[in-house]
Amino acid sequence: MFAIIKTGGKQYKVAANDIIKVEKLLGTSGDSIEFTDVLMMGQGESVKVGAPLVTNAKVVGTVLDQIRDDKVIIFKKNRRHNYRRKNGHRQYLTVVRITDILADGEKPSPKKAEADKPVKKVEPNVATKSEDAPPKALAKKAAPKTTKAPK
After folding, report:
1. pTM value?
2. Parent domain of 111
3. CA trace torsion 131, 137, 141, 145 (10° rounding)
4. CA dist 125 to 121, 133, 135, Å?
5. CA nearest to 14, candidates 81, 77, 99
6. How many Cβ atoms from other residues are within 10 Å of residue 17's Cβ?
7. Cβ of 35: how many Cβ atoms within 10 Å?
8. Is residue 127 part of a domain?
9. In this predicted model, what pLDDT tens digit does every residue of 89-129 receive, in sequence order?
10. Is the N or the C terminus of the chain less surrounded, counting Cβ atoms within 10 Å?
11. What DSSP designation does 18 have?
12. What is the dihedral of CA 136, 137, 141, 145, to 10 degrees?
């Protein structure tokens, strides 16, 4: 199933488990977001087009991160007038993982949202021999140098 949503003045075609970067939305990592401006949705040959929105449809996503986009350079120049202006801009973005596409007032399944998240295995902090020993460069500097005093 896919849907076309509108957010931040732009339109995005999304499906379940897609990761998209949209203009900054309020929320921290792990928060749930609902997009209610669904313009079109469909599965295979059956497509439902809104006029202008599909009624009772929404797309649910999870905020992964708040980031900034690459820098865009704005350079203005008028030739023969000694006029030059240089500016830079970095847009604030929100990274969202789409979890569910719901039609006709369906409710999101909490089990499905939990299953989509990758499970991180954290190993206990175990020091190895290489971590305990100081690096060779430090070991050489740590040894005191003997200098002969002039007679």
Report:
1. 0.66
2. 2-119
3. 130
4. 12, 16, 20
5. 99
6. 9
7. 21
8. no
9. 999 999 999 999 998 877 776 655 454 555 444 444 444 45
10. C
11. -
12. 70
